[in-house]
Amino acid sequence: MSKPIVVIGSSNVDFIMKMDHLPARDETVVNAVFMQTFGGKGANQAVAAGRAGGNVIFVNCVGDDPYAERMLAGFRESGINTAYIFRETGIASGAALVMIGEGGHNYLSVAPGANARLTPERVDAVRELIADAAYVLMQFEIPPASIARALDIAAETGTPVVWNYAPALPFDATQLKQVNIVIANEVEAAALTGVPVTDLASAQTAAQKLRELGAQTAIITLGEAGSVVATEEGAQHIPAFPVEAVDTTAAGDTYCGCLVVALAEGQSLTDAVRFASAGGALCVQRMGAQPSIPWREEIEAFLQAAPDNMLISPPG
Ligand code: RIB
């Protein structure tokens, strides 16, 4: 079996309301449709990597609520090794309220719950896993000190790190020197660099700034406008696949999980971004976080059917 992809991150119980428009302050929208699914940026990325065919170990904390066992069962169905998911007592699993409006865009708020128990000491306990991993994949929904500890261990053991800076919270950017690939959307990239990202040119500026801050490779995801990828060889724009979005929740997570699987298989960065974009394009066409994450066969069928018009160009 190939070396594992170790995902260190959060899991949440998602409570979703889909409505025709997002409420303004003090407004009540009465036409919402309710769904409860499982999410969390770490869990979504682990599920995406597992369904895309990766050998995935998920390091996470869940609570002692009735949802936890169902979450774990879902991870196992997606092919994830759950041996390093810690069951915390006296605390609920993480939870998220997701409101989805026009165009599938969402408003999100998160109660960390047991995710706050994924402490630096817990990360120390999985040091050997990090050392033996093909990649470590992280987000920003667990304590920042734990991210810092995992980055230190990965630097010591020479394990490549892919870090999705989501959500955009205060961060010591000097730690980017320990990140091989940083992935951020427009909002997150602007928070990290101070460069407002409004088009391909500003995305390229932000991506180069992330490299100057220390990341070897920077990927800015721009939704339907695709991705800007900056490496030591320069920047390129990789378009997205045009699809009709009903819910963008977990699209970025699917992208990250698929990207790491493709890289772990030895695909080029460009091919890996294309594979990741296909995963994201499938995800946005369905409702919910984990229910919308595609399996490998679907991604391959989508790529085979997709017109080979992925013009790859320097951002203009
Ligand atoms: O990225 C989407 C995820 O963000 C949701 O599943 C929600 O749980 C929040 O963590």
What's the topology here?
Blueprint: E1 5-8, E2 12-18, E3 33-39, H1 41-51, E4 56-62, H2 67-77, E5 80-81, E6 85-87, E7 94-100, E8 106-111, H3 120-125, H4 127-132, E9 135-138, H5 144-157, E10 161-164, E11 181-185, H6 186-193, H7 200-212, E12 217-221, E13 227-231, E14 234-238, H8 251-264, H9 269-283, H10 296-305
Parallel strand pairs: 1-4, 1-9, 2-7, 4-5, 4-6, 9-10, 10-11, 11-12
Antiparallel strand pairs: 2-3, 7-8, 12-13, 13-14
Helix pairs in contact: 1-8, 6-7, 8-9, 9-10
The chain binds alpha-D-ribofuranose.
List its salient traits.
single chain; 316 residues; alpha/beta; UDP-N-acetylmuramoyl-L-alanine:D-glutamate ligase; ten-stranded mixed sheet; 10 helices; 22% strand; globular; binds alpha-D-ribofuranose
Low-confidence stretches: none
CATH superfamily: Ribokinase
Q: Total strand count, please?
A: 14
- The end-to-end span amounts to 43 Å
Indicate the overall shape: globular
**Structural domain tally:** 1
CATH class: Alpha Beta
Assign the structural class, choosing from mainly alpha, mainly beta, alpha/beta, alpha+beta, or little secondary structure.
alpha/beta
Ligand list: alpha-D-ribofuranose
**Beta content:** 15-25%
| Helical coverage, percent range | 25-40%
Overview of this protein structure:
By secondary structure, the protein is α/β, with parallel strands linked by helices. It has one domain (5-24, 31-303): Ribokinase (UDP-N-acetylmuramoyl-L-alanine:D-glutamate ligase, 3-Layer(aba) Sandwich). The protein is 34% helix and 22% strand. The chain has 10 helices and 14 strands. The strands form 2 sheets. Strands 1, 4, 5, 6, 9, 10, 11, 12, 13 and 14 form a 10-stranded mixed sheet that branches. Helix 2 links the parallel strand 4 and strand 5. Helix 6 (186-193) packs across helix 7 and helix 8 runs antiparallel to helix 9. The longest helix has 15 residues, at 269-283. The chain is globular and about 50 Å long. The termini are far apart. It binds alpha-D-ribofuranose. Alpha-D-ribofuranose (RIB) binds at residues 12, 14, 39-41, 44, 96, 108, 110, 141, 249-250, 253, 289.
